[in-house]
Amino acid sequence: MAAPIYVSKTGLDSAGCGTVSSSPCLTIKQGVNEAAPSDVVEVGPGTYDGPDNRDITISKNVTVQATDGKGTVTLDAGTAASHFKVPSASAIVTVWL
Question: Would you say the C-alpha torsion 58, 42, 5, 50 has a positive or negative sign?
Answer without folding.
Answer: positive
